[in-house]
Structure formats: structure tokens, C-alpha cells
Design goal:
Blueprint lengths: L1 E4 L1 H9 L3 H8 L6 E5 H14 L7 H7 L3 E3 L20 H9 L4 E3 L3 H6 L1 E2 L2 E4 L1 H8 L2
Parallel strand pairs: 1-2, 1-4, 2-3, 4-6
Antiparallel strand pairs: 5-6
Helix pairs in contact: 1-2, 1-3, 2-7
Length: 136
């Protein structure tokens, strides 16, 4: 299974223990393939540096340790306008990148995205639900 991780999952997984952390740890030993987008990588770096001063210097290094493919923005830019029903247009990059990369599962803590549930064959799940799916 190919799994896309949203920035809120990455940040929570690095800054706190819990379900998101368990997902990040699973990138090292899981049979599944994990994916981030260029935008998610940038956003996670910025949030870690801004909101978690203790991680400011290490943010980029920590992100580089996560075993995940990073999808370049050029690979999903053309899909960004394809989600007019989104309440927050800033969420479009998550869906566009995940679909462009052929992901089966999108893991996010974003309520607006979670309400969609499934898009073009990709399930959208919370970290807790994603852990259950990944361990089936």
C-alpha cells in the first residue's frame, strides 16, 4: 500500500508520542511505501521551527530521516485546481500530491479532509484509523 502523510501527521509524530509517532516509526519497518509532498515537507519544517523551538535546529535533519518518497511540486501542480469543493483551498496540495503519486491511503488530522473519506480510490483516514489499516 502507498501511504501519503499530511504535514500535521508529520509534525505531531515528531513533536509528540502517539498515533502519528507510531506511523512515522513504521516508515522504517513497514512493507508499505510512504509519501510526502514537497509542500508537506516545507510546511512541516516551517511549523517545527516556528512552534517547537527545541526542534528548530534539528527540524530538517529529523525530516530527512523519515523513510518516505518526496513528490516534487511539479508532479502535482496541474491537479491543484481540481478540488473546487474543498472548504479550505490550501488543502488541495495534499489531495493533488497523494493522487499524483498513486497513493491508496491519505493520513491526516485535518477534519475537512477526513470528512471527504475517499477520493479517486484513495481512502482518507486519521492516524488511529490508518494504524489499523496498515496492520491488517
Amino acid at each position: 500500500m502507498k501511504v501519503f502523510l499530511d504535514s500535521n501527521v508529520v509534525v505531531s509524530g515528531i513533536a509528540f508520542r502517539g498515533k502519528s509517532h507510531a506511523i512515522l516509526v513504521s516508515t522504517f519497518s513497514s512493507k508499505h511505501r510512504f509519501v510526502l509532498s514537497e509542500d508537506v515537507h516545507r510546511e512541516a519544517t516551517e511549523v517545527l521551527r516556528r512552534k517547537f523551538p527545541r526542534l528548530r535546529r534539528e527540524a530538517q535533519e529529523i525530516l530527512s530521516l523519515i523513510r518516505a518518497e518526496v513528490v516534487p511540486a511539479k508532479d502535482y501542480q496541474s491537479r491543484l485546481a481540481g478540488f473546487p469543493a474543498l472548504r479550505d483551498p490550501k488543502d488541495a496540495h495534499v489531495l493533488a500530491a497523494a493522487l499524483a503519486a498513486g497513493c491508496d491511503l491519505i493520513v491526516t488530522g485535518d477534519r475537512d479532509l477526513l470528512e471527504i473519506g475517499r477520493i479517486e480510490g484513495a481512502a482518507i483516514a486519521s492516524p488511529a484509523d490508518a494504524l489499523r489499516i496498515l496492520h491488517e
